[in-house]
Structure formats: structure tokens, C-alpha cells
Amino acid sequence: MTTSGLSAGAAARRLGVAVTTLRTWHQRYGLGPSRHEPGHHRRYTVEDMVRLQVMQRLTAQGVAPAEAAAWARRSPGTTGADPSAAHAGADGILGADGVPVATDGNPAGGGQVIALGARADPAARGLARAAMRLDGPSMRHILALAVEGRGVISAWEEVMMPVLIGIGQRYEATARFVEVEHLLSRSVTEALSTVPRPPREIAPRALLAAADEEQHTLPLEALAAALAEAGVASQLLGARVPPRALLDAVDRTGPSVVVLWSQVPATGDVSQLERLLALPHPPIVVGAAGPGWPTADLPPSATPLGNLTDAVRVVAAACS
Ligand code: B12
């Protein structure tokens, strides 16, 4: 930034928000440009930009704009800052990244909340609140920050999974919020798909598929993204793969490892695994992933996969 500060357009571009948003934050919440030279438009200083970044982060986490602006105006390093103030939210809860965290009891989202527990990650709380508001842009923002900042495995386990499990419980208790579940699933899919895949010269040796009639695919999408991050190429067939189609795909591509996902017991028919293992040239590893498989009745040569980290390790080893 030059010593003379940034114009509104340049500040908006740097933050990735619309100029009209900056104008609103200026007019309604007093977060305007402070440098003034006679005969020129006001410019945003470094301190102004810090305030705007705090505002942007908190609103993306679901904090109400007026409250977010109050925190932004008091951010450390800005005029009138009270450094201790930035370490506790209005309700006294401190986020892991040092920003105040709105509690689940806050009425935002019409009083409808996804319960995450007291120790939930601030980003998960923000995601849950944005999900209940059906606020897709904020969900995308939070998820993108999580994936870029923490990597796929942590983003999945600390941010995405708790909210998915929470909305599942909400659905179970109320038979409502399918719209939230759908938008959340879509946003998770989009965030995971942005992780760059290995170059096309690396032939995928891992085949990932959901079991017959199995509609849940997000954990496999997380696996594909985490593998890509580790430089391992994979192919994901997607939801509801009939056994015959899976066998044909294995026959045609000869993968070293197949991971078959079953989320619900209705799709955890072990004959799908047995048929893969009985092929003349079976994959080195046939992974049974997901809570739908009957653990005690798995074929002895199938490899049970219990979490994302283990799955990445097993698949990467089989592909190396
Ligand atoms: C998103 C979602 C959907 C989406 C899926 C979208 C998509 N693209 O995947 C849609 C809307 C399609 C859907 C449909 C249905 N769903 Co649904 N869904 C979910 C939700 C919210 C998240 C699913 C998910 O991704 N789970 C993965 C992680 C987040 O959770 P987890 O499996 O508990 O995690 C454990 C392990 O799997 C493991 N793990 C986690 N990640 C990974 C990754 C890897 C690689 C490995 C190896 C392990 C691993 O660690 C965890 C601890 O053990 C769950 C809630 C839940 N608790 O899972 C309900 C849930 C699974 N759905 C449920 C139901 C009932 C259904 C439907 C039958 C609803 C209906 N009436 O139509 C249908 C269809 C089912 C079918 N035949 O497939 C129930 C299942 C209950 C049960 N045990 O039978 C759940 C649990 C919701 C609930 N609490 O009632 N669903």
C-alpha cells in the first residue's frame, strides 16, 4: 500500500468485496477511509484495512454486522484499540483465531441453530450459522479459508464434519432442514473440488465409489481432495454405483486400490466387496469405508478404513 492509502475500488478489490459493501460499512458502521488530503477522495490507510478485514472475517463467521463493526473499530493496532477487548466475544467466548465467537444461543438464523458443543471450532460455528441462514456466499468463504488455511484433512474433521453431523441430528430430531443439508453438502462439494488435482500425466490408481444405492459421497470427495493434496491421483465414480458398473470400471482401469463407501446399513451389502476380491486380478487393497458396513461380517481380505487420515495413508501406500 502506498503512503497515501488505497482508493475505495482498490480496497474493495484487495478484500474481494463489492465497493457498495464498503460504502455500506462506511455509512452504517463508521468503517470508512480516514486519510484525507484536500481536493482528493478519502483513502483507506493500513489501519482502515485491518478494521475492514476484521469486519469481513466476523461477518463471514455469522456475527451480526453491527457487532462485528464494534469489534473492528476496536481491533488491535487501530485508533482507540483496547487489545484485551479483541480476546473475548460479546458473550465472552474466545475463538481459536482470537476473534470473538457468537454462541449458538444467539437468535441469528431465526433462533434455529445447529448444536455443535462448547468446544467447537469457531469456523465450524460460523459455518453452522451461515448454513442455517442459507447464506451460500459466507459458507463458501468459510470453507475456502478452512481448506486453504488448514489443508483438507483438518478442514474436513474440524469444520465440515461437525456441522454435517450437527445438521444430521437436527434433521433426525425435526424432519426439517433438508434445504440446509442440501446447500451445506453443495458448498462442501464445491470447496473440496477447488483443491488442485495432480497433473494428468499421473494416472489415477485409486478408484473411489459409493456402494449400490448409496447417496452419500462427501467423505469420498474429502478423500479425493486429501489424496490430491498428497500428490495421489484418484478417480471418484460418485453416488449409487451398481455392482456390475463397479466391476466393469475395475476391469477397464485396473486400479491398485478401490474404496467403497457405505454410509447407511441398507447399502452395506458385503457381497459388493466379495465380488471385487474374487476378480481374477483383484485390486491390492479393497477398502470398506463408512459406518454402513457390518464390521463383524466384512470379508477377511477387505481393509476397514475408519477415518480420513488412515484412508489417505492406506490408499497412498497402495498407489506408491
Ligand atoms: C449430507 C447428508 C445427506 C446428503 C448426501 C449428499 C452427499 N453428496 O453426500 C443427502 C441429502 C443425499 C442424504 C440422503 C439421505 N440421508 Co443423509 N445425511 C447426510 C449427513 C448430514 C452427512 C453425511 C456425511 O457426509 N457423513 C460423513 C461424516 C460427516 O459423518 P460420519 O459418517 O458420522 O463420520 C464417521 C465415519 O464415517 C468416519 N469418517 C468421516 N469421514 C470419513 C472419511 C473417510 C475417507 C473415512 C474412511 C471415514 C470417515 O468418521 C466418523 C466417526 O466414526 C448425515 C449426518 C451424519 N452424521 O453423517 C446424514 C445421514 C447419514 N443421512 C441419513 C439418512 C436417513 C438419509 C436418507 C435415508 C434420508 C431420506 N429419508 O431420504 C437419504 C438417503 C440414504 C441413502 N440410501 O444413501 C441418516 C442415516 C441414519 C442411519 N444411520 O441410517 C443420517 C445419519 C442423518 C440422521 N442423523 O438421521 N444425506
Automatic annotation (TrEMBL):
Residues 203-320 form the B12-binding domain. Keywords: DNA-binding. Residues 69-89 are annotated as: Disordered. The keyword Cell inner membrane does not apply. The keyword DNA-binding applies. Residues 5-74 form the HTH merR-type domain. SMART domains: HTH_MERR. It comes from the Bacteria. This is MerR family transcriptional regulator. It comes from Actinoplanes sandaracinus. The lineage of its organism: Bacteria, Bacillati, Actinomycetota, Actinomycetes, Micromonosporales.
